[in-house]
Amino acid sequence: MAVNPPPLNGAIVHLGSLPASHDSVVVLLVSGRHLVMVRHRDRAWEFPGGHAEPGEDIEATARREAWEEAGAELAGLRAVGYYVLPNGHTTVVTCAQAAALHPLTGEHETMEVRAFDTLPSDLSFTDGLYAYLLTELGLLNGPDTPRSDPGEAPPAAGTTTL
């Protein structure tokens, strides 16, 4: 199902399906009841994610980006949908539990990793996409309330376990 809820900067969101090809992956990362986010050197808070390397599949990209940005090993990784920006850039949305979080070292791309009860106000991307995805996927009961067990959110129809 494709939806385009405002404002989302024109992104078209498809939940429960995967694209034929993709440019990047975002990992909606949770640890228990908390959202795990990273703070980049030049940006604010965001979920780990980034561009796929040549020949890299969704799972490999998600695991690599979670490690590089958050020092996270993933459990229960699943692809839940994707979104397409007006310029055609396609990002696959994945969800995962943090199986382990390791301290950031020089090989990590971010300055800080933090667990939040709710989405912080100082996000890198203020288009409402994170709140929309978390709510639609059942990772938030409402805009500011974490689920009782975010790692066990019911899979959307057509969800792919990686």
UniProtKB/TrEMBL annotation:
Enzyme class: hydrolase
GO molecular function: hydrolase activity
Source organism, top-level taxon: Bacteria
Keywords tagged on the record: Hydrolase
Ranges where the Nudix hydrolase domain occurs: 20-136
Residue segments, region Disordered: 142-162
Keyword Hydrolase: yes
The keyword Hydrolase appears for this protein: yes
This enzyme's EC code(s): 3.6.1.-
Pfam families attached to this UniProt entry: NUDIX (PF00293)
Recorded family membership: Belongs to the Nudix hydrolase family.
Protein name: 8-oxo-dGTPase
Organism: Thermobifida fusca (strain YX)
